[in-house]
Each structure stands twice: as C-alpha cells, then as structure tokens.
Design brief:
10 helices, single chain, alpha+beta, 2 domains, elongated, 6-stranded mixed sheet, two-stranded antiparallel ribbon
C-alpha cells in the first residue's frame, strides 16, 4: 500500500526532534524496525540543514511503500543543497554531530537526492538498514523546469485556449508534477528495477518543452490574480501535434499504473482527465488548422482520425 504521510514543522530548534520522533514512529508502524536508526539520523540532518540554510515553510513527508519508504524534507528555498564533504572521524563523532552537512544522510541512505522547484526544494532519501562508513551512494539532483521551445514566426501556429477552468487546471498541474517527479526519481535511483521510467521521463520532458514560456507566464499571472477562468494565447510549432496525441495515451497508461499502485502518485480525477483531454485535443486540432473551441466542462478526447491527420 503506498504511503503518503506529511508533518508541518515549526521554525524552531525542536523541529528536528519532532521530525525524528514522527519518522521513527512511522517506521515502527510499518514494522520496519531495521530502518529506524538511519531514518531518524537522516531526517534529523535534513531538517537541521533546512533550518540553517533554507527558508520556511518546512515539512517532512514519508512516501513510497513499506518495502521502499522514502523520507522527504521540503523547504521554501530553491537554492540547491551543498554536496557532502568526505566523512572523517569515528562513529561516535558522527552520532554526536548536528548540522554538519549531508554526509550523515549519505551514510544512512540507499538512494538520495534533491528536486529543485521554482518555489522551493525537496531533499529526500531512502533509509538503509544500517549506516555505511563512507556514504558512497551517489546523490541525484532533479530540476523541475525544462528548457522550453520558443517558436519563430516562420514555424509558429497561434494557439488559443478559451475559458480554461483555472482551479481545475492548477489541481491537474500539481498531480502532473507529482507523477513526473515519481518517474524521474525511479529513473535516477532505480533504473534497473524500473527500466521504462527513464523512457517515460524523457517523453514527459519533451512534452513540456513544447509549451513556450509565454504560456507558463500567462497561467502564473492568472493564478496570481485569483481568476476562475482564463483565455490563453501563445505560439506553438505545428510539428508538436503528434507529441500531444502520444501523450494523451501515455497519461491514460500512467493513470492505470497509479490505480494499480505501481506508481505512488494519484490518478487523475474524471474532471481532471476531461480537462486534460480537452486541452490536448485543442492543441492537436488547432495545429491542424481547426478553430478554437472553449472549455465547456464536457469530456473530449483525441480521436483516431485526429491522430491520422497529424501523423
């Protein structure tokens, strides 16, 4: 059964102790007594680093499964963490040291890394049954914002998305980012166990690159104003059409994996899926020369005839 537990931390010295007790209790409830020591040491160090070097809000989250739990510490600073220095000193020194970088996390982890987002970061680790002497597990850094295409006037089609339900779109975007991050982490830290994760991650990155920065800026501006509905207008290259057809199918496959608990993310709700299919369908149809049709809340899908038109 997938895990999804979260604790909000106070900006005070007791935050590390609170996180340590909370994570230790979860490990015991999961009957993973073998992970308690590394889980407690690792989360204490991550919270200490967040308090010393990052910004509020602070949260700790446990995700994954009882077999492969993952502990995440979330803060409000997008500044990447500093890589750990080589470990020196005896075991007692390590156990007594507080806030000394990420070397202890490296010693406590089977896999670990950080996801850098526009408004903060997530530093995570999968606790090991016992500490290592060297902390030789290589960590990985994942950045959420890909380079985006900026179409030139010669190859661009003017796209208009009319009447977008912004709260529903925002919820869909959060769900998408969680899915993309899960795939990215699997591809980075468990590629041998999940060989398709890398291919899907590449597909998702290519999908995101099709949206120009002007699209992202319009969405953010509308969210900042608290709008419920918004019209979006932006250029896009005509060659993007087949990518959106393929991704419509891939999102349905991802939903099936989520429902089967083969991924930790939650599948799209029926209304999220309807909005997603409408948006992707509009892109395909407009890139093929059709006029814009506003969102009316009804399910729409890309048909096989649409796929053949752009293929």
């Amino acid at each position: 059964m997938p895990l999804s537990s979260e604790l909000t931390l106070a900006s005070s010295p007791r935050a590390a102790a609170d996180a340590r007790r909370w994570v230790g209790d979860i490990c015991l409830r999961l009957e993973r007594d073998d992970l308690v020591e590394c889980a407690e040491l690792g989360v204490s160090e991550l919270v200490a680093n967040a308090l010393l070097h990052a910004a509020a809000p602070y949260r700790v989250r446990v995700r994954g499964t009882a077999s492969h739990p993952r502990i995440e510490v979330i803060d409000g600073s997008p500044r990447p963490p500093v890589p750990p220095a080589p470990v020196e000193g005896d075991d007692l020194d390590l156990l007594l040291t507080f806030g000394r970088g990420l070397s202890i996390v490296a010693q406590c982890a089977q896999a670990w890394g950080a996801t850098i987002e526009s408004d903060g970061k997530i530093v995570w680790f999968e606790p090991a049954p016992e500490m290592t002497d060297t902390g030789s597990v290589e960590w990985v850094i994942d950045r959420q914002d890909p380079a985006r295409a900026e179409p030139t006037s010669e190859d661009a089609v003017d796209i208009r998305l009319l009447g977008v339900d912004l709260p529903l779109y925002t919820a869909l975007t959060r769900q998408y980012h969680e899915l993309r991050r899960e795939l990215r982490l699997l591809s980075l830290s468990h590629q041998s166990d999940y060989p398709l994760a890398g291919d899907l991650t590449s597909m998702f990155a290519n999908f995101e690159r099709q949206f120009p920065e002007t699209y992202v800026e319009q969405v953010r501006a509308a969210e900042a104003r608290g709008l419920r509905r918004v019209d979006l207008a932006f250029p896009m290259v005509r060659e993007s059409g087949p990518i959106f057809v393929t991704m419509t199918e891939m999102f349905d496959v991802a939903d099936a994996f989520c429902r089967a608990e083969r991924l930790l993310s939650i599948a799209r709700t029926p209304r999220q899926r309807a909005l997603h299919n409408w948006l992707l369908g509009e892109l395909v149809h407009q890139l093929d020369g059709a006029s814009a049709q506003p969102w009316d809340g009804s399910p729409r899908a890309i048909t096989s005839s649409s796929a053949s038109q752009v293929g």
